Amino acid sequence: EDQVTQSPEALRLQEGESSSLNCSYTVSGLRGLFWYRQDPGKGPEFLFTLYSAGEEKEKERLKATLTKKESFLHITAPKPEDSATYLCAVLGAADKLIFGTGTRLQVFP
Amino acid sequence: KAGVTQTPRYLIKTRGQQVTLSCSPISGHRSVSWYQQTPGQGLQFLFEYFSETQRNKGNFPGRFSGRQFSNSRSEMNVSTLELGDSALYLCASQMAPVAAGTEAFFGQGTRLTVV
């Protein structure tokens, strides 16, 4: 059965303190791994899609990487506005997006 | 370009009642997927519609149903509401079917509370 596990569940960072979020997955026939950001009371906002091991994508202070078993979302020098829940999802042969339960990130000034 | 619109934003219903939620996708998008989000389970896939046809379905009871109209707008219905149905219901819009692997754009959701 396709499964996604995100860690840690919650992360508190000081502004400027870089860190990484982890997304471990088991899926039959990976077609894509997606990262989303969700603010309280809002729907998820698309960040990145990764399709194959070794692929990397960057956007401002965020960088996503992918291996055959996991993906990392690296946050460099975070700011308070980066505070949100970050969701990882995989698309496999079942043609369904399977989401992890997310990492709740808080960045303090 | 308008985003995904879900109505209503908030609903309070009584156990045993039924409810209908609506989703208008981004113009030109033909795929609409529905998800249930709860604190304990995260986002769970309900079903996907593409060009008025249900392409895929998650592991939810038959009380949960949906449909899509010719203009790509979609509705989902929950009958005989239970307390456990309280959740944020999210709709996602894509140009192509989910299987194509393109990004999904989400609406702000409908917060359903069952009392």
Structure description:
The complex is a heterodimer of chains A (about 110) and B (about 120). With about 110 residues, chain A is mainly β. Helices cover about 0% and strands about 60% of the residues of chain A. Chain A has strands at about 5, 10-15, 20-25, 30-40, 45-50, 55-60, 60-65, 70-75, 85-90, 95-100, 105-109. In chain A, the strands form 2 sheets. In chain A, strands 2, 4, 5, 9, 10 and 11 form a 6-stranded mixed sheet that branches. In chain A, strands 1-3-8-7-6 form a 5-stranded antiparallel sheet, with no helix packed on it. Chain B is mainly β. The N and C termini of chain B lie far apart (about 35 Å). Chain B is built from no helices and 11 strands. At the A-B interface, β4, β5, β9 and β10 of A face β5 and β10 of B.
Helical stretch tally of chain A: 0
Q: What's the rounded overall pLDDT mean of chain A?
A: 96
H/E series of chain B: EEEEEEEEEEE
What is the molecular shape of chain B? globular
First and last CA, distance of chain B: 37 Å
Structural class by secondary-structure content of chain A: mainly beta
Q: Care to count the β-strands of chain A?
A: 11
Q: Which two protein chains have the largest interface (Cβ within 8 Å of the partner's Cβ), and how many residues from each?
A: A-B, 24 and 26 residues
Strand content of chain B: over 45%
Q: Which structural class best describes the helix and strand composition of chain B?
A: mainly beta
Q: Report the C-alpha radius of gyration of chain A, rounded.
A: 13 Å
Low-pLDDT stretches of chain A are none
